[in-house]
Amino acid sequence: MTTSDTRLTVDRRRFMGYLLGGATVVAAADLGLLQGTARAEVPTLPQPAEIADLSDLLTLAAAPTSQLITVTINEDGTASFALPRAEVGQGITTAAAMIIAEELELPVDKVHVTLAPARPELLFNQITGGSNTIHAMYTPIRVAAAIAKGALLQAAATLLGDSANALTAHLGQILAPDGRRVDYGRLAALAAKDKPEAVEVELKDENAHAVVGTPVNRIDALAAVTGTKEFTTDLDVPDALPTMVCRAPTLNGTPESVRNADQVRKMPGVTHVAVIPTGVAVRAATFGQCIDAVRALDVEWNDGPVAGLSDEDVLANVRSAEKVIPTLPSAPGSETVEGDFTFWFRSNSAMDTNSAIADVRDGRAEIWASLKNPNVAQGLIAEAIGVPLNNVTVNVVQGGGSFGRRLFSDGAIEAARASKAMGVPVKLMWHRADDARVGRTHPLATSRVRASFAGEQVLGLQQQHTSVETDFRHGLGDIITAKAADLPAGLGNLPFSQTIFLLTTIMPYDFGAVGQTLVETDTRFNTSSMRNIYSPDVRTANELIVDQLAARMGKDPVDFRLQFLRNGRLRTALEKAAEAAEWGKDMPKGTAQGVAVHVEYKGVTACIVEIDCRPETVNRKVRNAVTGPRVTKATMVIDCGRPINPRGIEAQMQGCINDGIAMTLTSSLHLRDGHFEEASWDNYFYTRQWNTPPDVEVVVLDSTEPPGGVGEAGVAAAAASVACAYARATGTMPTEFPINHRTLSFEPKPRTPPVPQSPTDGLDHTY
Amino acid sequence: MPEQTFIVNGERVTVDVADDVRVLWVLRDLLGVKGPKYGCGINVCKACTSHINGKAFNPCAVPVGALSESDEVTTIEGLPSQVDDGARGEHGLHPMQEAWLDRDVAQCGYCQPGQIMAAVALVHKVRAEGRTITDADLDSIRNICRCGTYTRIREAVREGEKNM
Fold first, then answer.
1. Which one of B104, B117, B159 makes the best mutation probe of the A interface by having the most chain A beta carbons within 10 Å?
2. What is an example of a GO molecular function annotated in this UniProt entry (chain A) (predicted)?
């Protein structure tokens, strides 16, 4: 190799970065000098997402600001890292701690990972979405940690009078060949620089990893099981009293006037009543007194934009936007299969409702909330309360789930408005009924699929997905793209949705002429991603048709998929799943296995489930619950690239299985007369213990591919495999999801008042 | 304002608050006991599950005025002290909490205090019936986990049962 060749070739383990000035060691990666992050190995018949997908887009967008990501060594020998992402249960703080521990040669429990506040200078590098955190941050975090380690070695060399090359780092100490050792803590200040200094670093060989790739428990587990993990409403901010909002009886209705504000102000505990754009906010000594006040308010409301409509009307609207499906290739004797599927509104409401603390006084604002997009929140809050951006501090708090919802900052904006209107700090919390009814939804959609085949070949497959708009006005993590997405009449959002559909949609089979398109319509709903974006619906429709093709061509569903899959990683995963799940074993009548596969987030998943649709199972009774078919066993195989924390990946796959079951069998929102009916966890039927499979196996495959995303990766294959299993067990292909949507399985709660009163009979139900 | 007196995690407390305010808010908003979480306020999601006199209950559905001076409320914070020192595990916690750590059950963690308190009560209940936990018992747990960590909850309840 010549010298000039060497300059052109960038070793995947050598990177540039900076040692920043400070009291102790602060190291930063510079991924701007990193070559070749978007490697294009052009496959045959590529769809756009197979060349560069949403993960690539987010990672490339984040790279230029990676030198602003720093790892700090503290004088007590620990390392600190403020992760510019939101931990909402997906395990990224633990994964980040492991990556730092690995590269820095520190025990995991000596690495403190906190969540960074809004940092607008990070631009596109502070959005938590698309399961992209580890894909985008694996290398920057490693580089920053390796630079810090290099500085410690240099400082130790000076101290010990040895050369840095002769020294080794191990478990928080630098060791000299003669047995002398010095703690990182003692070196932290010695290694500090007065001003930034560019350095080159070589990363640890991934084959020598001893922490990354091994199962590690969550770093916040102890706090979680002792009740000390703090979520937004657990924070003690002085004078931030409980605050709730009284909302309209139609979706997104607005307050016209309050008839009894003075009376409500005199209620026990109540301190303030204020009209804000989304309703009437009340502040009180306890949330219970807020509930009393919300229920007592007498408000004249303006109807929301879907007043009077039901979800059947919305479906008709979507149907009218459907376009003609392109003609399929044909050949002598070719046949077609087709399907037309409806996916009803679903809720991404988390356990921890939309909540935020806001202190807006004297032209300044400080916000505390779980936000996956804090820079956009900062911009929107500044705009909402009319203060300069620099006067708004946004602190990111750990979230009790997100599932896409915390890409938006609905609660934080409301809290800021309420605090400004009242002139005092507020701890604003959405009631469960608010979170279910007014919170964001996975949009209603139809998916039409048509495929043609002749003899042993599939000639073509066309799919058209038509949907209520999915809101991407959160942009790419910065206020500029958020504003671009917010152009009037959906015109700004449209390019985002089309791009994201293209960058996330992969049909993994060699099916000849494949076309998949998206049409979006209707901007009147509060929508967002929901633990995966389009894929659970798109893939459920796909995989049901794949099973139809297999049946028509006389093939077993697994054999058929293995024959047509054009992704080697996926073929391996499916073979492993079929073996682990004992695919094809004898099953009693009324029960069946179902299989589905998926490619997304730089990885692949294969899921096989067993479902029991026998009457004695379907008709089992549980109080205030949906029972129905039971998934009795689930096997999920994932290749997500190099696994960082197999224990965390297994957890995410277990969760994805339960999400998939809910999406296919039980969970949807019902729009009636202009509002969603669901106001309780006993109305919205997310998977419960009586629905979950008693037998779950997750296999995490070893891989040397770059690490991909896991938080959402399993939902699509799980949802689709449950649908396929249901079709095989009952002999009828389902066409509406969830399958129980047309049965309203609960008594709707009133809309006025908008929140239910807490019961008083709790002592009658102890056990 | 009426004075409400009862026992929380072994300590007698007195709060000035109206009779009808539910115990959840008295604990969280007035006493600063944050382990029990709000998830619905209507005794459905079970995120606030705690114990009263050793039995599981949901403080969102009990007016504070219904408690008497001798009523003992135990939240997740007080669970370790419900067992003898010798029965605690390596983290000094109740065997059910230790099982939760061993199985790395929590994801976001929001529902987990309620899950653990429900699990402990379930073990006590089936023991009182002279039996051990079955799949049907696990199916009967109403506590929601929206992250979907039900598989590990089931494993941890069984492990905690063994060590209780």
1. B104
2. oxidoreductase activity
Distances (CA, A) of A175 to A105, A152, A157, A504, A522: 12, 11, 10, 48, 64
Report whether A291 contacts A238 (CB < 8 A): no
Interface test with B, best of A115, A219, A225, A357 (most B CBs within 10 A): A225
Compute the average pLDDT of residues B42-51.
98
Q: Taking the model in full, what pTM does it have?
A: 0.96
Residues in chain B: 164
**Chain B residues within an 8 Å CB radius of A88:** 108
On whether ipTM exceeds 0.85, the answer is: yes
Would the CB atoms of A758 and B112 count as touching at under 8 Å?
A: no
The structural domains of chain A, ordered by start, are 3-218 (3.30.365.10), 232-305+354-429 (3.30.365.10), 311-346+440-737 (3.30.365.10)
How far from A566 is each of A218, A508, A511, A512, A569, CA to CA, in Å? 36, 6, 10, 11, 9
Element (H, E) at A516: strand A513-521
Residue A367 tokens read as: 């916000």
Residues A617 and A630: their CA atoms lie apart, in Å, by 7
Class of domain B3-78: alpha beta
CB-CB under 8 Å, B57 with A766 = yes
Contact A217 B104 (CB under 8 A): yes
Mean pLDDT score, A192-221: 93
CB B65 within 8 Å of CB B19 = yes
Residues of B in contact with A624 (CB under 8 A): 44
Residue ranges of alpha helices (H) inside A471-567 are 479-484, 493-504, 535-552, 557-564
Q: Which residues contact A337 (CB under 8 A, 6 or more apart)?
A: A450, A451, A453, A545, A548, A549, A552
Reply yes or no on whether the pLDDT at B98 is more than 50: yes
**Mean pLDDT score of chain A:** 93
Percent of chain B with pLDDT over 90: 99
- How many CB pairs below 8 Å do chains A and B form together? 232
Cα–Cα distance measured from residue A101 to residue A545, given in angstroms and rounded to the nearest whole number: 46
Cβ pair A225:B30 closer than 8 A: no
Predicted pLDDT at A262: 98
- Is residue B132 classed as helix, strand or coil in its secondary structure? coil
Query: Does 1.10.150.120 match the CATH number of domain B81-163?
Result: yes
Of A672, A667, A677, A675, nearest to A741 by C-alpha is A667
Measured in angstroms, the CA of B13 and the nearest CA of chain A are apart by 17
Q: What pLDDT is recorded for position A34?
A: 42
Nearest to A721 by CA among A547, A559, A469: A547
- Are A225 and B107 inside 8 Å of each other by CB? no
Q: Which residues contact A441 (CB under 8 A, 6 or more apart)?
A: A345, A346, A347, A348, A525, A526, A527, A528, A530, A669, A676
Give me A118's structure tokens.
């809004």
What's the confidence (pLDDT) of residue A29? 73
pLDDT tens across A265-286, in order? 999 999 999 999 999 999 999 9
pLDDT, tens only, A609-625: 999 999 999 999 999 99
Question: Quick one: DSSP state of residue A714?
Answer: T
Which of the residues B42, B49, B158 would you substitute to probe the A interface, choosing the one with the greatest number of A C-beta atoms within 10 Å?
B42
Cα of B147 to nearest chain A Cα, Å: 6
Cβ neighbours, 10 Å, residue A554 = 7
Tell me the per-residue pLDDT of A24-71, one tens digit each, with 9 for 90 and over.
Answer: 777 777 655 444 333 333 233 678 888 888 888 888 888 877 777 789
Residue A484, pLDDT score: 86
What residues does each domain of chain B span?
3-78, 81-163
Q: Which residues of B touch A754 (CB under 8 A)?
A: none
Smallest CA–CA separation between B28 and chain A, in Å?
A: 8
Instruction: List CB contacts (< 8 A) between B66 and chain A.
Output: 760, 763
